[in-house]
Design brief:
This protein has 16 helices and three strands. It is mostly helical and 379 residues long. Strands 1-2-3 form a three-stranded antiparallel β-sheet. The structure holds carboxymethyl coenzyme *A.
Length: 379
């Protein structure tokens, strides 16, 4: 046992190749299929980025037109999915509601059947687009239900983000808000072998279907060390109260060995490459909503952390308050992450299937030595 090197949390372990994205902590860069994510956020809509992640290239106008039509034709919330959501208690976490809704869509997919079409490339692609198209309706309805409001039908004259916000709030907000939301979707879309994507790949590696992989991904994303951090950031801001109290709050948190949510990253140690772009979006939103104190709080806690430890904010730090400003309930923040990451997860599922090897690591046993079941148990 002493000779076995244990890679706790698989830290630093390279388990496979990927052509979907490249995270480079040395240069603080993130490339989707070779393109810097900051440039994609500035120049593309989320639909184009989804296409890029799946097909490897940005779409031509004709390809985007065809893709957009396909996406818009599938935006409606299926009545059975709505019925199942309506059966769930309002106390359920929206992550669990969305996970259940994806499960229903999978179980209803007659092309899934009981045979190996589970892993068919084209069908997996079609199913991925279906989930991409339907998640805004699921997430928006989950939010509206918490407000005691009715479902809003999708509009096929709107782009992805404008429609998502229309289905949530019953109206399309100003373009600055739509743009900031779209940027968050692009930044959240993909991040190599993070915990939820790896979970999805493990499930795909058993030749299970894409719905099962996505459901597993949602489960992994829920935790506060991963996607759940964006909700936790909002709770932190609320617990601190006002920016002048950030330093004392942090002092206390660190003294009590608490992890400060929205800070730190397994791969980036000098800052998350996505943060500057999302911080700009947050600045736009604080100006638009005339809420400068949100930005003050952002910097107060960041400065206090900077003075104490070299731990930098991650994407969840600016995105949590941005979603709060747009008007989402805090428990909806991580479901928004699902709607974005469905693209990355499913691109990885298809990549895994294209060159599959069952993911099955080893462990070093450290339990009791072999022993006999006591005679009294054998009767
Ligand atoms: N607050 C306080 N201390 C921290 C934090 C933090 N957020 N992150 C790391 N540290 C400290 C940690 O206590 C440890 O200190 P020491 O060496 O003195 O024991 C050191 O830094 C190394 O931390 P680690 O937890 O071993 O590092 P890791 O690579 O396993 O952790 C992490 C990465 C993301 C789990 C961790 O930074 C963390 O828990 N952050 C808060 C949760 C969070 O924001 N998650 C979102 C991650 S990125 C976006 C996403 O996936 O959604």
């Amino acid at each position: 046992m002493a000779d076995t090197e244990i890679h706790k949390g698989l830290a630093g372990v390279v388990v496979d190749y990927t052509a979907v994205s490249k995270v480079n902590p040395e240069t603080n860069s993130l490339l989707y299929r070779g393109y810097p994510v900051q440039e994609l956020a500035a120049q593309c809509d989320f639909e184009e980025v989804a296409y890029l992640l799946w097909y490897g290239e940005l779409p031509t106008d004709a390809q985007l037109d065809e893709f957009t039509k396909l996406e818009r034709s599938q935006r409606t919330l299926d009545p059975t999915v709505k019925k199942v959501i309506d059966e769930l208690p309002l106390s359920a976490h929206p992550m669990d509601v969305v996970r259940t809704a994806v499960s229903v869509i999978g179980a209803q997919d007659e092309t899934l059947g009981l045979d190996p079409t589970w892993i068919d490339r084209d069908l997996t692609q079609q199913r991925s687009i279906t989930l991409f198209a339907k998640l805004p309706a699921i997430v928006a309805y989950t939010q509206r239900r918490l407000w005691g409001k009715e479902l809003v039908e999708p509009r096929d004259d709107l782009g992805y983000s404008a429609n998502f916000l229309h289905m949530t709030f019953g109206e399309v907000p100003e373009q600055v808000v739509v743009d900031a939301f779209d940027v968050s979707m692009i930044l959240y879309a993909e991040h190599s072998f993070n915990a939820s994507t790896f979970t999805a790949r493990v499930i795909a590696s058993t030749l299970s279907d894409v719905y099962s992989a996505v459901i597993g991904g949602i489960g992994a994303l829920k935790g506060p060390l991963h996607g759940g951090a964006n909700e936790a950031v909002q709770h932190t801001f609320e617990a601190i109260g006002t920016p002048d109290k950030a330093e004392a709050w942090l002092e206390d948190a660190l003294a009590n060995k608490k992890k400060v949510m929205g800070f730190g990253h397994r791969v980036y140690k000098n800052g998350d490459s996505r943060v500057p772009t999302m911080l700009t979006a947050l600045e736009t939103l604080t100006a638009y909503y005339e809420r400068p104190e949100v930005l003050e709080m952002y910097h107060a806690l960041d400065d206090a952390m900077n003075a104490r430890k070299p731990i930098k904010p991650n994407l969840d730090y600016p995105s949590g308050p941005a979603y709060n400003l747009i008007g989402f309930d805090t428990t909806m923040f991580t479901p928004l992450f699902i709607a974005a990451r469905i693209t990355g997860w499913t691109a990885h599922v298809m990549e895994q299937l294209a060159a599959n090897s069952l993911i099955r690591p080893l462990s070093e046993y450290n339990g009791p030595e072999q022993r006999e079941v006591p005679a009294s148990e054998k009767n």
